[in-house]
User: Fold these one by one.
Assistant:
Number 1:
Amino acid sequence: MLVERNRILTETIQRLMRRGAEARLTKIVSKVHAADLPSVFSSLSASNQRKLFQLIRDPEKKGFVISELDEDVALNIIEDLSIAGLAEMIENMPSDDGVAFLRMLPQHKADAVLGMMEKTESEEVEGLLRYKDDTAGSIMIPDFIALQENMPAKSVIESLQSKEYLDVEMPFYVYVVDEYERLVGVSSLRQLVVVPPSTPLREFMVRDVISVTTDMDQEEVARIVARYNFLAVPVVDEEAKMVGVVTVDDIIDVIREEATEDILKMAGVGEEFVETKSIVRSTRIRLPWLFASFLGGIVAIFIIGYFEESLKQVSYLALFIPVIMGMGGNIGIQSSTIVVRGIATGRINVRHLWSVVSKELAIGIILGIFYGVLLGCLVRLQYSMDALAISVAIGVLSSMTVAALVGSFMPMIFARMHIDPAVATGPFVTSSIDILSVLIYFQVATILLGI
Amino acid sequence: MLVERNRILTETIQRLMRRGAEARLTKIVSKVHAADLPSVFSSLSASNQRKLFQLIRDPEKKGFVISELDEDVALNIIEDLSIAGLAEMIENMPSDDGVAFLRMLPQHKADAVLGMMEKTESEEVEGLLRYKDDTAGSIMIPDFIALQENMPAKSVIESLQSKEYLDVEMPFYVYVVDEYERLVGVSSLRQLVVVPPSTPLREFMVRDVISVTTDMDQEEVARIVARYNFLAVPVVDEEAKMVGVVTVDDIIDVIREEATEDILKMAGVGEEFVETKSIVRSTRIRLPWLFASFLGGIVAIFIIGYFEESLKQVSYLALFIPVIMGMGGNIGIQSSTIVVRGIATGRINVRHLWSVVSKELAIGIILGIFYGVLLGCLVRLQYSMDALAISVAIGVLSSMTVAALVGSFMPMIFARMHIDPAVATGPFVTSSIDILSVLIYFQVATILLGI
């Protein structure tokens, strides 16, 4: 449905842009749901992106669109905008998006924009800018409803309708704080309307409130929201004072981003999603990762070079390098993927090192025996050389066993050392497997073939 | 925080189980948040899992825990339970979870359980069982609030407090339907309390409601909820009649599951998350996937075998097989990962085939030239053979170029043919790259070295 909706909207807008039908474009842009616009922008040329953006009249819509665009598209569009225009736009964004947007700008420009903003708005944003990227503090919204515990349900409902709270973006819960603004309870809107109107919050609030701290990693916050099915989770500072809420819509973005990051890191494509149109940038991101694989290849050259005499005598040996490397490489990726994703989703406990590794090892041995024997039989049939067949079989078995071992062990160890395990897969694991496979295979063959 | 919380709870429970302190266990289990229990279960032995579950008294808690457990743990636990016990448990689950649970049971057992359930409950569950797995119908909840458009805000609020709607799990929105139960509008709870009490729904409801159909794939539903920041999305049947809602907490589960599935499929570990403790099952899942890689290896044997004479004359040639295969394999994984994830997140449009593939191709060529020249120079220095150095350089260049091409082209084509592109990566892409790399390398070398 979305794909179809995107296609129709994009095609209509492209057609109107070609015709220069500005009046109609302005009308369409004002009628369409803001969330439908970002994907249209990424299909337009850079100059059309700027032109279309100028036609958005509503500053809130502008802010929403900018905050949802890929960084390179956003940076392209804002080149045209004045400092005053940027300031107005950020004032109309939820403050967490405003912060993310300001972080994208060069320092001097960000400072200039902050200087132009209304004081209350810029103070709020500057307050959030203090928190490190990817922490609860950086994705929280500082607007929430916090009331005292003796307030009766009826007055709470009246407060909700007051001007003070009209700005609160997603008021799912009413938080209850004590005189020091420390969080002591929570009530859902639902509970408010089902209790008798005179009941004070104290009597129906939930006291065991789960909260997160401003410096907690956003991935951990996401896990908490997902586990307890929260719509929002309160954020407290080091003095247990409530300072904001993280809402479920931002958590969805975090979960998608983190999954994408993990996938890309495993493939050694860095943390950046390379749907930037820049080939140079993509190349620069991938180059160093491939270097690990290159170094592995160089080591393999020396290993095989060391066995050159054997190779001269039995040139058949070279034929089996690809299959031995391939089988090891593939099962290694399987093991490391299972482990990396298991750790990320919390299904694998990092402390269970040996049970995880020994399971993978067992699978590696079983599959290694299966494919080793299979290949050994084929080689025996084709070349009628027992020693060669056995060498090749052992080569596959040892390569697959080592691969399962390395592929599961490395991410577990990395995770224990608090290094992101997703980085441990990809070129790094593959290279070690390549080197070990080739080494064991040639060593075994040299011994068995008596060369 | 969660990890620490899990650890303490798990250790406490394990200690008490060793001591057989049932009374204390029962108390802890009743006090702890239901969402904290599933991860404890997966750390216990099978018999302790069953014992601990018996100690949960609250049927709602039982249902919640069972629905969050891994399938093998859940199946182990329910072996002990009577049909009546199962029926009571499902009655206390949200109906979408009840459906998922029933799908796990063997047909005859599921039928028996349905027979024991209260009629209204079993009808609701049976209604949902009709929908195919992984569709909006299978994850929706049939409880929602739907009112007529002439009802004033005040009466709407009173209805919310009425007995009829007390069951509704997450009443974020009030839906407005016409006389044929067709969806015509929506209002948030928020809007209800800020308009004057006598305003009828018609005057403040949003008319442009985005809804999904019962047969829509859950991944598409997730994209819609994520794009529009919904807390729930209404589900309509083929006659546009509203039949349920999908809530954001289920969407979070869908997003996490789909990301995991994609990652595992790319590595050729099937759709199942193999944190089952069964080595046999894991082996069976991986075996066929490795067969693609095995076949690729066999083909490589014949290719290299075909060039055996060259290899006998210049045994050096074998030294460079690993580096050429490795560089191709790794850049191939990078390209396919970028494309597969790009398609999954909607950042890559499947119709832009050539722009995506040509970008990857350009990156492959640039990186291929870089690493080809680098390796060529090293080989020239070490072996003083120009033709060998050039052959190796061309080998790396062509392998990386082909890999980037195949790695991006295949998932795009699969996606266009409506085959899951995640399946196209892993062993399948790697094998084709291995074969092509070896073939081109030996062909070029044979010509250049004049053998």
Note: The longest helix of chain B spans residues 353-383.
Number 2:
Amino acid sequence: MLPAFFCFKSILINFTKKKNVVMDLNEFRRHGHELIEWMADYFENIENFPVKSRVSPGDIIKKLPENAPLQAESFDSIMEDFNNIIIPGITHWQHPGWHGYFTANNSYPSILAEMLTSTLGAQCMSWLTSPAATELEERVMEWIAKMIGLPAEFTGVIQDTASTATLVSLLTAREKATGMGINSNGFYDLKPFSIYCSTEAHSSIERAVKIAGLGKEYLRKIEVDEFYAMRTDKLLTAIEKDIKDGYEPLAVIAAIGTTGSTAIDPLDEIGRICKKYNIWLHVDAAWAGTALLLPEMRHIIKGIENVDSLIFNPHKWMFTNFDCSAYFVQDKAALIQTFEILPEYLKTKESNAVNNYRDWGIQLGRRFRALKLWFVIRSFGISGLQEKVRNHINWAHEFAGWIEKSKNFELLAPTPLATVCFRLNPETVISEEKLNLINSQLLEAINNTGKIFLSHTKLNGKFTIRFVIGQTNTKHSHISDAWQLINDVSTQFS
Amino acid sequence: MLPAFFCFKSILINFTKKKNVVMDLNEFRRHGHELIEWMADYFENIENFPVKSRVSPGDIIKKLPENAPLQAESFDSIMEDFNNIIIPGITHWQHPGWHGYFTANNSYPSILAEMLTSTLGAQCMSWLTSPAATELEERVMEWIAKMIGLPAEFTGVIQDTASTATLVSLLTAREKATGMGINSNGFYDLKPFSIYCSTEAHSSIERAVKIAGLGKEYLRKIEVDEFYAMRTDKLLTAIEKDIKDGYEPLAVIAAIGTTGSTAIDPLDEIGRICKKYNIWLHVDAAWAGTALLLPEMRHIIKGIENVDSLIFNPHKWMFTNFDCSAYFVQDKAALIQTFEILPEYLKTKESNAVNNYRDWGIQLGRRFRALKLWFVIRSFGISGLQEKVRNHINWAHEFAGWIEKSKNFELLAPTPLATVCFRLNPETVISEEKLNLINSQLLEAINNTGKIFLSHTKLNGKFTIRFVIGQTNTKHSHISDAWQLINDVSTQFS
């Protein structure tokens, strides 16, 4: 039998335990104001955090209880854990010292818009379920098409990510080529399709090829030139060989700004080849698309009229919270036919007169994502966006110039946009293997300073450090400080 | 030549035009506080809005300029347009009178978490890119698995929507059945797979079948019983016929809560059939999954041990902002093998020791969605969530009882959860055609009151009004008021 005091203690615990009172409107108002202070302070002090989190695998999860609480907990205790457990495990993508991968920016107007989007909690699957969200999306996508210089034939729709958009594009190509035949009857008794991208193309293309059932064996990875752009002579040879061998060339995915080095595939020439052979042409400009805001950069999409679809991510470099991908397509009807569904419970009397974006992609449910684009574009103005992006590109060229003049570093690729590919190559080191090793160590040492964060790729077998400029709050001084830091850290390796 | 005053005026306009000054931190802080007031006021006054927006197609877009502004605009002018143009076009999903489709709820703690998520703007594709987000997702999904009574063999991951998760499940089934063969080599020379769901299954299943290249011709829509649940005798017959005809049965998708009437497919029996024939079994519990928080409701997943994967949406009925789908799978390795990609630029030294959720689904980029689940679960506590869901189910039974007792209305399906399917059937009307017509008119008239919003489906050819109870802020009084309103409006039709 349990001693009497034990029972008494249990009763006491039950008595003092918080009652199950869920946050009310007054508390929401109060905590909302507290969070605004937290958010503004975060941006004010962000440079005090190490960019890359210093936790080790398992550090966070072991601090989190194994079971959910039975009773309601106070917001203060949740925020305490957020500050003490979660924040140390955050890698700070909004730090102005962020130069890794590609940026995934937010900005003040974007965050404010997200607050409204989450409050309204509207579903933008059909016009009826949220007319303003649907019509704002239509208008904002028209704005963006004009802002980046697309021909009037393109229609835009927001997708969540470039991965999804590339899949959407490939599926549309697949269905257009077969008269919606694979949707209906699958692949049986069809000859294999072949798909083309460069060896430098993004991994999401291979994933999309797999998902669409096309088989990665039929994804031809075309050789690149010395600047890591697709070689059109090799593309042409591959297409002609496939035709001769009984394959049906389905789609080419051109990269305007590869993930490794932001190489620009020669779109004009690729477009002519695609037109000649009636092949769908999709452009992956996930990062680089934002540069098209600048008229002086539009030469990189010369030949756009032969492009069937294009994706770029305002959530990368256009200061708009993830997720927000701008997908543009010439044959809107083919897109919709590929995805449309109309069960009874989704029928509305407006169905034919309006856009029902649920039929423009994979997901049925959709967030009200046009709002943040509207807030961002209006808050910056086109010229405000241009100014930022132009600075980033100029600073990248300046940084590349420093590399070129340096004795110890070398550029490993051109800098067409705002990503600089380089490595340490001190005069004392000879073998490529050794160079790869010291550059990977250098990268780790740089990131361990906590001041900046960079990531890597391999170009032609060489371990390549990537320096991406594009974070919303990065100033010129951050670039010169970063260069100083890289030099300082590198002394231990040269 | 232009008159002098015109030129003068132009100069003045240029002078007074706002300079391109983008919002700074102080303004963000100020506008943030303003928005908190807006947000709290919105919830305070939400019942003053008509639930369903009253705009007509084109009303919104014609008020939006055709071109983006060149110069920055003030936040005040953006908010003015938001209030005057956007808000009248919003259908208010967070209104306590929301009884349409399924609910897509938010809640105060969820909105607060979204504010932090959008501020951090962290990418949760790899452990390294956001360790806390990865480990919190792992832990919170463990919580949820236990909270809804899943066996320990299930591993969870957050997907954006049930549409995506069902596609992920079908692709995993496809690849597991072929040893990752279609990913590699496509469908060529394979015999057709057959897939099974009921005639009442969600449209996203057909879409997933199409995307995966399986062909909707091979999607067998199995007949339902009088309660709109899948008939297992028909399922068995279809499977055996397919095998005899040379098809390979690949997957069954069982609905725990169909979209039309929340019918519950007999999982236990379906699981036994799937086990016998080695068929992948996916459960679509998009709405109903939340009911599993209640131990007394777990009978609806009897046989769960034979299920390969299950999806339910906390963003529907668990008071968590869209998007947030909880996907659970038994064979985690097959899931990851289906989607994994590892290009050089994504390699990290921790790759093998940690979860890299980019390999658990379609998208590479991922928001920090675990945070809102953590905030919601802790703020409500399990018992707080249970209380709400239990109320909704009880109130639905009460509402169904009112229908049963009524002379003019009739139930058209059982009410296993919190969705009541009914129609007006006054004694004076005879033909089914006429009944369909007056019920569609009745639905429109109810929605036009602006007080509540309902949607419809067809059950057995009958136009069916659906009354879904599950909105975060709905109280019992809203249900009784709605019943009164429905009766009042119906008098003009009976």
Note: Chain A touches chain B through 157 residues (CB under 8 Å).
